[in-house]
Amino acid sequence: MFSGFDPRFFSFLKELKANNTREWFADNKARYIAEVETPALQFIAALAPALKAISPRFVARPTRMGGSLFRIHRDTRFSPDKTPFKTHVAMRFQHDARGLERPPSFYLHLSPSECRGGGGLYHTDMPALRKIRQRIHDEPRDWQRVRESGFEIQGDQLKRVPPPYPAAHGFADDLRRKDYYAIDTFTVEEAMAPDFLDRYASECARIAPLLRFLCAALGVAS
Length: 222
Hints:
This protein has 222 residues and is of the alpha+beta class. 44% of the residues lie in helices and 12% in strands. It has eight helices and four strands. A four-stranded antiparallel β-sheet has the order 1-2-3-4.
């Protein structure tokens, strides 16, 4: 059972933002494990059955390394921001297909200033984009059903419709997309509520038509 994130979860992240050094984190690592990492892994474990009901191909893996929880450590090699730790918690529940650089995934981001969750494909590779655009062109009725599912598809777009599609294509705006994802926002109070897991699972179910379309375009089962 998961009954919502404790206020200490967000308090720790707020303190980390004010004290983003390796020394402070080392002194408070036991708190991080108890107040942030452990409840995040508990959430992932509790989500697994609900996610399986949406699709058995999307994986919720509650492991410290190599699972659904992103590392708290930042990769600072190519960033001007050299602070060593992320000040949010992120989880990704991705498709289990092999051979895809970036498989379709559900996603959750939690911080004291912003909580959001959803899924799809973000900044995927060009071969995947071509396959998605081609399926939008080839299966317009399927794509229309996705568009009528009641959520907004978000992300960056090209200025023009890419070839070989005509500029006046019925789904011109969608063919210009470089991202195909839907995301909703939550308040911190909602994330701390006992029904947050159900609320997030409902959001995943709501946008599942988009992920099923993406899976079909990429040739993987959903």
